[in-house]
Give the backbone structure.
Amino acid sequence: MTTVETIKELFVHAGAGWVLWVLGALSLGSVAIACERLLFFRSKDDDLRGLVGTLDAHLRRDDHAGALAALAPVRSVGAAVARAGLRLAQRGPRAAEKGMESAMAVERNRLEVRLAYLGTLGNNAPFIGLFGTVIGVVLAFEELGSAGAVAGEVASQAVMGAIAEALVATAVGIAVALPAVGLYNYFQRRIASVMSDAEALSSLVVAYLADQAPESEPARPAAQGVA
């Protein structure tokens, strides 16, 4: 038996039903991830205008400790980034800016956790369904070849059933992919919005720290020797 015949026998015995189960399991995984991410993003929501007002009120008085205390109970990404800058405020605007950049990278990674699953599923679920379709077509030709000229009506029903199973696999693959792609795009837009809010707060912190930083003394002219 050749390799092609061996693979064909495996497909014939396994059928295309297991592909549907795989797609169903992958779809349940995407639903679980979507629910978890929705709850996580909701926990990070906050009033940007209120945070800006709070920071502005404290930083206008050069009250870094008060700003940190006011932001301590806030769980949003912008508040976490602003706290990272305020902790380094005594080291100067440059240090605070670097601290906030680091905090933004950490928060972005937390926001993007498990989203790659949704993107991968959206891109590959149709191919999994197409794989089931190929198996169904193989089954249809196998039924057509084994029936021969005898019992033509029975053979026709078997072939139509195999083709229908193949088309169902394709349809299920597309049905699994579309919500995954939509959820992935939605979460990417949410991440862009959250990071934009964080950048607004970080810019406010840097602006106040730069304004409060002491100006460097001008260089003194070198003393001239007595002629």
About this structure: The first helix runs from residue 3 to 14.
